[in-house]
Amino acid sequence: MTKPGFTKFLITLVVAVSAHAQINVLTANYDNQRTNSNLHETVLNQSNVTTGSFGKIGYFPLDGEIYTQPLYVSGIQIAGATHNVVYVATMHNSVYAIDADTPSSTTALWHVNFGPSVPSSVLNFTDILPEVGVLGTPVIDLSKQIMYMVSDTLEGGLPVYRLHALSLADGTEQLNGPVVITATVTGHGGGAVAGKLVFEPGIHLQRPGLALANGLLYIAFGSRADMDGFHGWLMSYDATTLAQVSVVSTTPDGFGASIWQAGRAPAFDANGNIYVATGNGDFDGSVNFGESVLKFSGADLTLLDWYTPDTWSALNANDKDLGSGGVILIPNSNQLVASGKSGDLFVIEGNSMGHLGPKITSTVQNIQANQTGTFDMALWNNPSGPILYVQEFRGNLDAYQVVNGKISGTKLTEAVAATQTNFAGITISGNPSTPASAIVWHTTADNTTSQQPGTLHAYDASNLSHELWNSNLVPADALGRFAKFVPPTVANGKVFVPTFSDELVIYGLLSGGSNGTDAGAPVVTAVANGVNFLAGPVSPGELVAIYGANLGPAVPAGAQVDQTGHLATKLSHTKVFIDGISAPLLYSSENQVNAMVPFGISSSSTTVIVQNASQFSASVTVPVVPATPALFSSNGTGGGEGAIVNQDGKANSYGDPAPRGSIITMWASGAGKTNPAGNDGQIALSGSLPTPQLPVTVMIDNQPADVLYAGAAPGMVQGIIQLNVRVPAAASTGQVPVVLQVGTYAGPNTVFVVLK
Length: 756
Known about the structure:
It is built from three helices and 61 strands. The radius of gyration is 26 Å and the shape is globular.
C-alpha cells in the first residue's frame, strides 16, 4: 500500500474547508424588463447613502442559494395583520415571505418547499452548484394576490418542472396548481422523433424570469452550458387556469438557440408583444433563429418580426451568444436594446427590426461597447435621455446615453473596476422628479476564480466615478458570497441583496448611526455536506456546513488546534452539539459553521444544536447513513476541477494535466467509520492513520481506478481522507469525471481531473 504524503497543496485545501466559498445570481421580472426599477424610491438618496448613515441592518437565513431577484409587495394581509413583504425563492426549492420592515427578524411570515431539488450531478453540470430548484425569478399578479414560479424537482431520478401559483398571504397553492410543464412542437431538429420535438426537462434550464402580460404567463428555457441536444423554448400559460396556451421552439428543425438572457425576463411592448434574444444555435431565417432578437405576438406566440446580424455564423462558432444580455425596451419609444457576449450593443426599431442584415442599418444602431462581452445591463429613463449601464466582462461599469433615439458611441461615464467582475447585478433607484438623487446599485466580485465574496456599491447615476458607499468600507457591512446576474431590489428605503451565502442581506439607513444586526438566538436553516454543499443525510466523521443566523461571530473565526492535537470544539462563543456530543469546529461566522460529525453518532438519525454564547438553536433532526462521500474541488465549491495533485507534486489543471497511468492524490470527506475507530477532532499523524471500514472505489472516466491508499490524511483532521489512485491507462485525455464510492454510497460526478 502506498502511504500518503503531505504536500503544500493541503494548505489550500484547509482554506477551502474553512468556508463555503460559493456565490451566484439571476435576474427578475423588473416590471417585465430590467429598466429603471424602483425610481419611485424617495428615502434613499445621494445625501444619506454614506458611511455612518447607511449600512447593513439585517440578514435573513435561507435554506439555499438565491438565483432569483427578491420581489417586494406592500400592504399584504397575513394572519390578520398588514405587512410589507419581500418574497425570496431558493435553489433548494423553497419560497419565503419575509417582513420587510423587521430586517433583524429571522422568522419568516411563511415558508413553503416544493420537494427535493435536482443535484447538479444529475444534470452533469457544474456551472451551477450544488443544486437546481427555483432558478427563474417569480412574477406576481397583484390583482389576484398570486405569485407564479417554476420549480425543478427530482422525481424517480429525473428532473420535473412544475408551474406553481402561490397565495401571497400564506403560500398555499392556488388555481388547482401546480401543473407539470410539458411541451411538443412539430419539427425535425435535434432529438425529434417522427416529426415531433418534445421538451426534455433534463437538458434545459428555466433561466429567465417569468413574465406576466395579456392575462398569460410566459416561461422561457435554455440549455445547460450548451450541452446535449438543447433548443430554445417559449411557452405561455393561462394565468387563471394554468392551462398551457401556446408553445414555440426557436430551432424546431435545427439545434440550440437558448433563451437564457442571464436570467432577465422577456420584455413586452404596449401592444402586448413579447421580445426575447437567443444564444448559440442554427439559423435559417425561416424556423430556426439562433443569435437573434425575436418579436412574438403575446396572444399566440406567432413570430411577428426579428433581427439577426449577418455575423451570426461567427458569433455562433465562437460562443458569442447575442442573447446573453436579454432585451430592454426604451420607454416612450419603439426602440429596444440588446447586448451579447461579443460586446455589441444594439438599438433596434421594434416596429421594423430588419431581419437578417448588417450591424448598422436604417433600423438598427450598433456600438462596440466593449471587446469582452456583456451579460448585465440596466436602463435609467433620465429626463435628458435614457442612460444604459453596461457591465464589461471582467472590466468597468460603463454608461451610454440615448439622445433623440440615437445611442452615443462615447461613454458618458464609467466606474473603474476594483475587481474583475463577470456577472454583476445592476439596479437604479431614485426620485423621478429629482434626477440628481438617482443611485446605481452594483454588485461585484473577483470572478477570476469561482465563488468569491461580493461587494455592494452605490454610485452617483450621473457620474459613476463618484462612489457614494460600498459594503467593504465597514466590516459589519460585509455582503457575503456574490450571486451572479442577480440585481438588488430597492424598496421603501432598503436594499435587498441576494447572496450565495444562503441569506438575503438587507441594507438601509442606520438607527442612531449604528449597525442594526443585533444577534438573537441561533437559527439553523440547513445542514449540508461540507464538501459538495448538498443538504441531506450525514455520516460519521463527515465535514458538514451548518447554515442559519446568529450562529457565531460577526468576524469569522477559523480552526484552532489545542495542545493535545485536537480541533477546538468552541470557536469564539460558538459550539455545535451533534447527538449531544460537542463537535470539532473548523469555522464559525454569523451565518455558517463548519463542523466534523462525531464518529460515534447514532445509526439512523441525529440531532444538531448550535450554541452561541448563552443562547441555543432549536434542535434539528438529520438522517444518518453509513457514508456520504464527496471529493474536494480546487475552488471549494464541490464541483469543477478537483483538488488533485499529480504524481510530480503539481496541482492538476489544464496547464498541468496528469499522465494516464500515473498516480494522483485526492481528498474527500464522508467515508464513515474507520479502523481503528476515529478520534473526534484529532489531527492525523503519519504513524497512526485510520482507514474506512467500508470498501473504497474510484471511477475515472467511467473506468475503475486502482486505489493504492484510502485513509486519514496526514496533517488534517480525522474525517478528511486522502486517496492515492492510479489513473486508468485507457482513460480519455482532457477533462474526465471522477466518482468516489464508499460501500454502496456513491458521491456526485461533479469533480473532474485533467489527463494527457
